[in-house]
């Protein structure tokens, strides 16, 4: 596809995302109020139940087909010494995902989810039967010196994530997705996205990532400032920002989120990097935000403010900061709980319990 065709495709995708079904939200609300509990007493589970109904059009949908999509990509900005780990961990962890040994594999098995691992731009030649190849380039450029990627590359990566998600939904019946990622250096790119597209200062957006100390965090703040000064991304054009200071796996996740929303699927958002992708997706297509469900609050310091800016509230607080989709997959358990409440709870009428 030419750049013009890719741009046109994004416009079409954005236009295809519909608001939630309001009648189904009302039906869910009525059902919740008929169940044997004081109104509203199941808190966020009730909110989730209404949102699930609005997304799918069903009060208690079958969400057995669920997947976590782990997008992997490398970051040229690692040259600046912004991570506690070397860049070669990205391809090494991809092989670990494919072997089933990473945290996300374990938690996905516990939540009945399938793991799809995608090479969006790992800086290595990887070959494995189960690896989905969506590589646009071998890692981004060092964004303190030039744009992380060309606009066309960012567009192609979004479309890659979109098409994968659409295919999984339409051809294989997946109805619930978790966003996952792996990319040494990607908390730096995410912090830059939050600074330009969110209303955060670099100092608020930059955290410790995989575990740097405060002195290195200060240096990371300076790296984010230099990347923004070098590229002057246009905050009114989220695709420009994504291309200049984002990442290939982040672009892939933007596509996953848009693909889920366009196909009326739930998309459960993981930690800081996934939420940065969610911010980009909501900046491109505001209607997509209604399909997002926040999972956990990451320890990465910018995450709380980022979630607030997207309008997401985390279901769980477990002091995690791993990424991979681990928090999002745990979130599946709470969505299952909300659906089960809708399906199995007795009503005041059926149980013969008096209303207040
Ligand atoms: O999801 C999070 O909130 C999160 C917070 C800190 C680190 N990570 C993971 O750690 C890697 C990025 O950290 P860093 O320090 O290399 O920028 C990347 O692979 C992420 O999946 C993830
Ligand atoms: C080992 C390791 C596993 C990860 N998973 C996601 N990010 C990660 C970063 C490191 C360093």
Automatic annotation (TrEMBL):
Catalysis: reaction(s): 5,6-dimethylbenzimidazole + nicotinate beta-D-ribonucleotide = alpha-ribazole 5'-phosphate + nicotinate + H(+)
Any Gene Ontology biological process: cobalamin biosynthetic process
Keyword list, A-Z: Cobalamin biosynthesis, Glycosyltransferase, Transferase
Gene3D superfamilies: 1.10.1610.10, 3.40.50.10210
Assigned EC number: 2.4.2.21
InterPro entries per UniProt: Nict_dMeBzImd_PRibTrfase (IPR003200), Nict_dMeBzImd_PRibTrfase_bact (IPR017846), Nict_dMeBzImd_PRibTrfase_N (IPR023195), Nict_dMeBzImd_PRibTrfase_sf (IPR036087)
Top-level class of the enzyme under EC nomenclature: transferase
Pfam family of the protein (one): DBI_PRT
Catalytic site positions: 324
Pathway annotation from the record: Nucleoside biosynthesis; alpha-ribazole biosynthesis; alpha-ribazole from 5,6-dimethylbenzimidazole: step 1/2
Function: Catalyzes the synthesis of alpha-ribazole-5'-phosphate from nicotinate mononucleotide (NAMN) and 5,6-dimethylbenzimidazole (DMB).
Family: Belongs to the CobT family.
UniProt-recorded name of the protein: Nicotinate-nucleotide--dimethylbenzimidazole phosphoribosyltransferase
């Amino acid at each position: 596809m030419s750049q013009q065709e890719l741009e046109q495709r994004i416009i079409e995708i954005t236009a295809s995302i519909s608001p939630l079904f309001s009648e189904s939200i009302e039906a869910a609300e009525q059902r919740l109020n008929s169940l044997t509990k004081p109104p509203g007493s199941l808190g966020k589970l009730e909110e989730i139940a209404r949102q699930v109904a609005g997304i799918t059009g069903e009060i208690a949908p079958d969400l057995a087909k669920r997947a976590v999509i782990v997008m992997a990509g490398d970051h040229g900005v690692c040259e600046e010494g912004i991570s506690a780990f070397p860049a070669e961990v990205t391809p090494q962890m991809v092989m670990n995902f494919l072997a089933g040994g990473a945290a996300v594999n374990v938690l996905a098995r516990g939540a009945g989810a399938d793991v799809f691992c995608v090479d969006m731009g790992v800086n290595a030649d990887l070959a494995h039967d189960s690896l989905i190849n969506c590589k646009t380039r071998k890692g981004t450029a060092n964004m303190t010196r030039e744009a992380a990627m060309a606009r066309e590359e960012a567009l192609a990566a979004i479309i890659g994530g979109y098409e994968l998600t659409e295919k999984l939904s339409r051809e294989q019946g997946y109805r619930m997705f978790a966003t996952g990622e792996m990319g040494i250096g990607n908390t730096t790119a995410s912090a830059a996205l939050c600074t330009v597209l969110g209303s955060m200062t670099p100092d608020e957006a930059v955290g410790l990532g995989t575990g740097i100390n405060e002195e290195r965090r200060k240096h990371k703040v300076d790296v984010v400032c230099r990347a923004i000064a070098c590229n002057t991304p246009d905050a009114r054009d989220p695709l420009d920002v994504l291309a200049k200071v984002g990442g290939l796996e982040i672009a892939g996740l933007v596509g996953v989120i848009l693909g889920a929303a366009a196909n009326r699927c739930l998309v459960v958002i993981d930690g800081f990097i996934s939420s940065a992708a969610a911010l980009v997706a909501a900046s491109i297509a505001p209607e997509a935000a209604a399909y997002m469900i926040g999972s956990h609050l990451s320890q990465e310091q910018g995450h709380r403010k980022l979630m607030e800016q997207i309008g997401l509230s985390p279901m769980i607080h477990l002091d995690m900061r791993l990424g991979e989709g681990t928090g999002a997959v745990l979130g599946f358990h709470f969505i299952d709980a909300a659906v089960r409440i809708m399906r199995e709870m007795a009503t005041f009428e059926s149980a013969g319990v008096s209303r207040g």
